[in-house]
Design goal:
The protein has 164 residues and is of the alpha+beta class. The chain has a domain of 112 residues: minor pseudopilin epsh fold. It contains 2 helices and 8 strands. Strands 1, 2, 3, 4, 5 and 6 form a 6-stranded antiparallel sheet that branches. It has a two-stranded antiparallel ribbon with strand order 7-8. A hairpin with a 5-residue loop joins strand 5 and strand 6. The longest helix is centred in the first third of the chain and has 24 residues. The N and C termini lie far apart (85 Å).
Length: 164
Amino acid sequence: MKISGVKLNRRHASRGFALPQLVIVLVMGALLAAVFFSRMEGGSPEYNAQAAELKNHLRYAQARAMEAEGPEDPRFWGIRRNGDSYQLVVIEADGEQTHRLLPGAEDISVVADRLNFVDSFQAVYFDRQGRPYVGEPPVRPGTHVDVTVGYRSVKVIRNSGIIP
């Protein structure tokens, strides 16, 4: 039997992706790439935690230096590197150096083995105005202070002492 005159309306099979499907796939790929590269650039969670802790300790040293009022108070407060650890160092008015505990630390030295300190960083001190000084003995830096710790550096702005 043959049916004539009846024309079936069939859609032709589409070839490839429709535009909305293609856009969705590209957006998902871009999101996955962004997450992957942000993980690669920023380092491990342990690295990020130790870098944030170092910034907080630098801010603590700066705040303590700015609390000084009289000539008998310490002249400088700072952070000094010692291998893969660092310490809070206080330079008294008479030039004597002492070590103090940092907040939350159980020992004088804070281990920062994930940070990979650059050899040029030895010490950062702060005066009573919160301005940074570097080296032993402390001297004013010509530019901002970079404490390079692996993937990125912790900066201390020269004149203002801001630690972003």
